[in-house]
């Protein structure tokens, strides 16, 4: 249908939009974009303006190659009402939108347009939001599946005040030549997400859940909807975040993140060719608050299972966290810490770890640091600047300098501790304590 001459416009995106609008006007709720582009007699579709998808509509991408046009500032796809005044109201919610990839679909950011966060709104540039490939604003019932995304110009798939969303079978391949080439971003007001089977390389965080009162909060706020991120399920993520994070949790300014369930995350980075990623799963940050920092209880009910990490830290705790459980955490390669922290002011309550494995014998670190442990400053549990209480059941360590480090009032209760080749069990001060199988480490 999209290749019928009656829909041809001056550009490929006009042609696609004409076909979508024409189908909707006739009551047809599905449109297929094939590989072949009859308007240009080519095997590609060049996008210079956002394609707007109406409610109750399915767009099938059939083995097609779509690339952002050089020198333009816009999304590739967005919902019909996104960015309009009505989208800031409950009545303006779009619904039941599907983009389904069939076969080998490639969406390409093309040549970068120099629109970055540092140039956003300056020197004649629009806001950097124009560079997110998919922008979904106030959508219910969204489904995006079966896509290969290359070289997004900024974030690839961005959601603001969206609910009941399914994202499956997405592969990324980004050469990190510009900052913040995230994969999937959930911003304020996102809830009831099902994210599965995410693979590949991004230029920043693979999946980021960030509820902040930055400028975009006021632009995209939907009156009558809460601003929290909650009820999110993430399954089977195998990604290389360049030097950043595979899964990120970040909330401030009264926004909450709760009831998030993560199962099976692997840091697939090649640490031999570049600096290691900072962390595989990262919770909180002392930066980015506009009004007030996150308080204890605003990040809660978090469950993370089956994490394999080769980054600096497998699980990193950075702010306030309560009612959380982490199970089956494994490191390999030259990780620094299994569980660690960044910055100051982290407080934990009712946080539990089950089965934490820290091993080095399978990598060259066994020779380079295990034989000279005084040169290696990592720990299985780096509780620096963390306060509160934490439980660990099942801790397995091989060739490590410290089981635990701490310099603030943190109490770690550990059972089933198995450690071999530990140079110094504990480095504790400032009221930090660790009870290992009933005995206090000194």
Briefly summarize what is shown.
With 442 residues, the chain is mainly beta. It is built from three helices and 29 strands. 5% of the residues lie in helices and 49% in strands.
The radius of gyration is: 24 Å
Mean pLDDT: 92
What is the number of beta strands?
29
- Helix tally equals 3
Q: Work out the helicity level.
A: under 10%
N- and C-termini, Cα separation: 74 Å
Largest beta-sheet details:
29 strands, mixed
Topology:
Blueprint: H1 12-25, E1 30-33, E2 45-47, E3 51-53, E4 57-62, E5 65-68, E6 77-79, E7 94-102, E8 106-108, E9 134-137, E10 139-150, E11 157-160, E12 163-173, E13 184-186, E14 191-201, E15 207-211, H2 215-220, E16 229-240, E17 245-251, E18 257-267, E19 279-283, E20 299-309, E21 313-317, E22 320-331, E23 337-341, E24 346-358, H3 365-368, E25 379-383, E26 386-406, E27 410-428, E28 433-436, E29 439-440
Parallel strand pairs: 1-4, 2-5, 3-6, 4-7, 5-8, 6-9, 7-10, 8-10, 9-11, 10-12, 11-13, 12-14, 13-15, 14-16, 15-17, 16-18, 17-19, 18-20, 19-21, 20-22, 21-23, 22-24, 23-25, 24-26, 25-26, 26-27, 27-28
Antiparallel strand pairs: 28-29
Q: How would you characterize the overall build of this protein?
A:
It is built from three helices and 29 strands. With 442 residues, the chain is mainly beta. Strand 28 (433-436) and strand 29 (439-440) form a beta hairpin. The protein is elongated. The chain starts with 11 loop residues before the first helix and ends with a strand.
């Amino acid at each position: 249908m999209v290749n019928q001459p009656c829909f041809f416009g001056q550009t490929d995106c006009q042609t696609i939009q004409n076909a979508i609008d024409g189908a909707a006007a006739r009551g047809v709720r599905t449109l297929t974009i094939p590989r072949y582009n009859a308007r240009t007699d080519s095997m590609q579709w060049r996008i210079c303006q956002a394609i707007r998808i109406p409610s109750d509509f399915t767009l099938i991408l059939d083995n097609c190659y779509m690339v952002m046009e050089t020198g333009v500032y816009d999304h590739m796809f967005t919902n019909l009402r996104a960015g309009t005044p009505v989208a800031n109201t409950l009545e303006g919610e779009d619904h039941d939108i599907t983009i389904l990839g069939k076969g080998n679909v490639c969406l390409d950011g093309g040549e970068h347009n120099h629109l970055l966060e540092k140039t956003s709104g300056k020197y004649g540039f629009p806001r950097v939001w124009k560079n997110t490939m998919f922008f979904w604003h106030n959508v219910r019932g969204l489904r995006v599946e079966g896509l290969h995304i290359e070289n997004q110009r900024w974030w690839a798939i961005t959601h603001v005040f969206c609910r009941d969303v399914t994202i499956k079978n997405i592969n990324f391949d980004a050469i990190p030549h510009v900052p913040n080439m995230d994969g999937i971003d959930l911003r304020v007001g996102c809830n009831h997400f099902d994210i599965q089977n995410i693979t590949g390389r991004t230029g920043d965080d693979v999946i980021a859940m960030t509820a902040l009162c930055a400028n975009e909060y006021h632009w995209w706020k939907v009156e009558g909807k809460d601003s929290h991120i909650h009820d999110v399920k993430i399954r089977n993520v195998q990604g290389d975040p360049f030097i950043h994070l595979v899964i990120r949790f970040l909330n401030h300014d009264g926004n909450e993140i709760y009831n998030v369930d993560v199962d099976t995350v692997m840091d697939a980075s090649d640490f031999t060719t570049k600096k290691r990623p900072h962390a595989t799963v990262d919770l909180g940050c002392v930066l980015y608050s506009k009004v007030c920092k996150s308080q204890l209880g605003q990040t809660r009910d978090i469950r993370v299972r089956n994490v394999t990490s080769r980054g600096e830290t497998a699980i990193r705790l950075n702010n306030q966290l309560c009612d959380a459980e982490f199970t089956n955490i494994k490191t390999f390669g030259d990780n620094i810490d299994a569980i660690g922290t960044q910055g100051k002011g982290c407080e934990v309550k009712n946080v539990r770890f089950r089965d934490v494995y820290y091993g080095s014998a399978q990598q060259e670190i066994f020779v380079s640091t295990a034989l000279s442990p005084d040169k290696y400053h990592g720990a299985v549990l780096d509780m620096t600047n963390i306060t509160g209480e934490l439980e660990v059941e099942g801790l397995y360590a091989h060739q490590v300098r410290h089981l635990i480090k701490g310099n603030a009032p943190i109490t770690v209760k550990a059972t089933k501790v198995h450690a071999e080749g530990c140079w110094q069990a504990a480095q504790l001060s400032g009221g930090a304590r660790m009870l290992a199988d009933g005995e206090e480490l000194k």
